[in-house]
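Quick one: structure tokens for this chain, please?
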Amino acid sequence: MVLEKPILIDCRDHLHGRLCSVVAKELLAGQKIILVRCEEMVISGSLVRNQTKYAQFRNKRMNTNPRRGPFHFKSPARIVWRTIRGMVHQKTARGQAAIGRLSTFEGIPHPYDKMKRKVIPAALRVVRLKPGRKYTKMGDLANNVGWKHKELVDRLEDKRRAKSEVYFQKKKAAASLKEKAEAAAAGDLVKVNEVLSAAGY
């Protein structure tokens, strides 16, 4: 990737650790990154295995005063954020600046649903995980450890998908009309096109 305007990454069906490591490297290089659909990200291993690992992780706390941390987040977006925080050396000014360039979301909230989303091929489950291996969706894991908004996010995502389908059908209809118009006017445009091509267009 090259440094440009903020990059919007769709986390659906990406492996958790692999995606986070690529994102961390880009953040340290100065790139702003927005991760959407964190609840659709996957972790290799079965749900039971990942639940057990998360239970052991939640057990790590300050002995005398647990309110001081470590803090165990339950929402998928914050779990992903915390993973990346551990990869950018956040106790330095450079690491703090890097983590400040990151935004994570469940679902695809308003301004980002109209923007082009990208994927990271090196982190995709279909590329990296052997067929038949078990994997866990981040949303299911979070739901089982106390995240309370899975149903709400699913409902909002269904609404967004319905709106997006309507927009796509309109776009397809407009494209086919344009194609027909171009085909109908092809004879009339021959001379115009010759002039334009001579002028370098």
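Helices lie at 16-29, 47-58, 76-85, 93-100, 125-128, 138-144, 150-184, 190-198.
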